[in-house]
Amino acid sequence: MQEKGSISIHTENIFPIIKKFLYSDHEIFLRELVSNAVDATQKLKRLSSLGEFNGEQGDTKIRVSFSEADGTITISDRGIGMTADEIKKYINQIAFSGATEFVEKYKDKGDDKQIIGHFGLGFYSAFMVSSKVEIKSLSFKEGSEAVRWECDGSTEFEITSTEKEERGSEVILHIADDSKEFLDKARLEGILKKYCRFLPVEIEFEGEVINDPNPIWTKSPSELTDEDYKKFYQDLYPFSEEPLFWIHLNVDYPFNLTGVLYFPKLKNDFEFQRSKIQLYSRQVFITDEVKDVVPEFLMLLHGVIDSPDIPLNVSRSFLQSDSNVKKINTHITKKVADKLAELYNKDEKAFEEKWDDIGLFVKYGMISNDKFYDKAKDFCLYKNTDGEYFTLDKYKEHIQVNQQDKNETLVALYASDVKKQDSFIQSAKKKGYDVLELSHPLDSHFIQMLESKVEKFTLKRVDSDTAEKLIEKEHTLESTLTKEEEEALKEVFDKAVNNKDRRVSFEPMPADELPVTVTLPEFMRRMKDMQALGGGGMQFMGNMPEMLNVAVNANHPLAKKILAEGDESVKIDLAKQAYDLALLSQGMLTGSDLTNFIRRSVDITVG
């Protein structure tokens, strides 16, 4: 038998398009050809189960081999094979998908999920790396004749009879000069492990099976132990710490979705390790760019998602957004929220122990996703400076009596740096106030979000004002200074501070509080915090002077001492010393001002 003809195509320049544009990543030729071999093998198994193939299946491994000397790569399978007519139909008519036709034919006879092929163009990715491609095939049908198809990348092909003993197909690529890099064991093995690591049929390369045909996401959770999940995680991420916990996804309506998502230990690094979730379609690796399938805040997770219902472009390289993608996105968000709620409700103490690792993730989700917020608000924890944890409702109850201002708004105080702000924390605690620890740059956005959603509730950083004014009450302390004394004292402090951007005021505080307190107003602090995290529109803050409030404790003994001092320069020195001490407590005293403060302190001590 011998036949020559032209491949049926609609565009004469189809091969240059395939080679240069359709598949931007040349290494995927191996993924496509091995996937086709898997399809052929799965079809045979399907026909056998339906009673349409009664022979022995035997060894169904797919074998990949190469010869550097011959310049060839060969992909062999023992699937259904093809007749000459089928080759003409499926190979010569570009974009006619054999898998699609097969699924359509057998769609009413059971599960078709194991048929990978979608587009019919996958085979032609071979021409990205080949100067010539051969197919040798023997159909499973009785009495079939083995055939050989050959094409050099033009629109011409040749079909002839050939010798082939075993059922199945053999695709032989004669590698082009500009693609000799693929005639390398390590290179081929790397590609196979990247794309074919979990294909459902055993793949043998250089005498070794390189894939796991039954990864854990294809199994029922009831079949698996914690050790199985941990081992799979270590296989995916060999040098990572053990995950905190995981979610096994298994949905068949209204879309198909399986997978396992892991919660890694994040701590406070806020590192967006975006290429940690792998997307598969029927166990074929597609991409680790899953931003359209997974909400952005879940990009912090690790693991695998597998769905045949995620729409891909013809090269399977890019996701295409549609209603299924949105449904999957929503479903994954719900599953993650439900899992976290389950863990919290099951064992609050164990959940608290994990909070430092997952808190950042939960807060990021609440900021960026309203549906996640609605669920997470019931298990999001708030840690105070004493190491106690509360949900928001429990915390509001905890501070209800003492931290309600004169407008009946609850005021939660927080520290962004517990060590640096210790004196302010101690002052707040003296008044019976509780202080939260919100120390991550993301917390500035989290605070803004909370205040927009929770009525009659606000947060103030503990060093944003004096303890007396953090929570405005109906009744306040009385000043021991007269108006004339305040005016005289203000003149002294204005000279000591000597900065038009520092606003000096006198406030009645307990006598045992610091004589002077320097604070940055809450709104200014928030603007700066958000700018530090890259908050849009906040860049102008970097050019603004730091408008500090200098609050002089009207009831501190130092006030009377300064007023009683007869020497003007000594008055200013005393005021300057108290002011510098306040700056030092905020980490704002630097350079020559710090040096002068130390010298002055030594003089006072010696004197």
From TrEMBL:
Residues 25-165 form the Histidine kinase/HSP90-like ATPase domain. InterPro entries: HATPase_C_sf, HATPase_dom, Heat_shock_protein_90_CS, HSP90_C, Hsp90_fam, Hsp90_N, Ribosomal_Su5_D2-typ_SF. Keywords: ATP-binding, Chaperone, Cytoplasm, Nucleotide-binding, Stress response. ATP binds at E32, N36, D77, M82, S97, G98, R316. One of its GO terms (molecular function) is ATP hydrolysis activity. It comes from the Bacteria. PROSITE patterns: HSP90. Belongs to the heat shock protein 90 family. This is Chaperone protein HtpG. It comes from Hufsiella ginkgonis. The lineage of its organism: Bacteria, Pseudomonadati, Bacteroidota, Sphingobacteriia, Sphingobacteriales.
